[in-house]
Specification:
This protein is mainly beta. The protein is built from 1 helix and 36 strands. It has 2 domains: 233 residues, Neuraminidase, CATH 2.120.10; 150 residues, 6 Propeller (Neuraminidase). Strand 18 and strand 19 form a beta hairpin.
Amino acid sequence: MQSKFSSSLRVQLAGIMAVVAVSILARTTPAEAQQEIVLHSFDPKIDPKGAWGPTSGLVRDSSGNLYGTTEFGGPYNCHFFGGCGTVYEAVPQEDGIWGEKVLHSFGSGTDGFIPNGPPLLDAAGNLYGTTQLGGVECACGTVFELVPQANGKWTEKIIYNSDENSASPGRGLVFDSEGNLYGTVVNSGGQVVLFELSPQAGGAWTYQALYTFSYTEAPNGFMIFDSTGNLYGETSLGGTNGTGGVYELSPQTGGGWIFQVLYSFGPQVYGGDGDDPTGSLVIDGRGNLYGTTYQGGPLNYGIVFELSPNSGGQWTEKILHGFKGMDGEGPEAGLAIDASNNLYGTTVLGGIYDWGTAFELTPTTDGEWNFTVLHNFGDSRQDAEEPWAALILDPAGNVYGTTYLGGAAGRGTVFEITP
């Protein structure tokens, strides 16, 4: 993460570099068009064993309940800041403010600790996720499952313990159509490995390593499937220019996966392409991929991009928006997409108050995209600040997310943006 001090320096530099800015195919609407509400402020003073410091996003079930993870909080101490992390549910209350129910506190015994990604929800209502550290083998991280019980409590089960040969699970998990889980770990040589966890009779899960990335690549852990079973993700390094790229992993008949770099970002930073994709991708019904890069673009504040497949097997990139500071800076997370192919995202910095923005990109009939700032974070002492995670949508078009800072206690929030 770049600090707000480096952000100010970059703002000054951006004024010098603006003369070399490339033309971006987007029309910008700077005014906010929707209303933001802080649903919940995390506050360890009110509940010393509660959750705080959410760095990952939310998942929503069919009843509208919201679930997330925090790196801090809980009754056990794992690091200087206190707490080992939690899985929580945001619970609506009669006064319109949402409460917090901690479903699991990490760090007890051989449990994992410091969850490092958003939870994943299956059709039965079970939650899955990863922890950076902890577990039985070598405290190298875990993959866990949380199962709701009839009495309202949740039971945790560790379905995979990392060891010296497969440590530090990545930030994201994804299901295939058959209920297998896919994620990444780091092997003993420092390379990232794609793995599969398959459920077995009796509740056990079988681990299988599927593909090992090269040393020059740094996949960020987030992956998505298309309708034919291909996996797509991003590397923050690697590619032709060393500034990251987008890849595809295709399963082969009889076993094995074929790796292909679909697009390499760079090499120009100012006035050029994106640099350092750190979030997740989304895919539309035509197979186009959309994502963000944390840096690069006309002022080095990051971009939103589209990758479109061509008939010859190549992919074409189109920059949909290059951030300019007042409309946001540093999109750390990926995007959300609705049924009309509108894109929603956040930036960690920038905006009117330099605490980040939430934005929407809407496709037009002439092939361009309208950009709208939905909210400038930090507009009051109790507003949300620094959204690090991707947004989610409900069927009514409401947008939900988390911020690492801000809120009544300054320890993070769950927020909603309503149309």
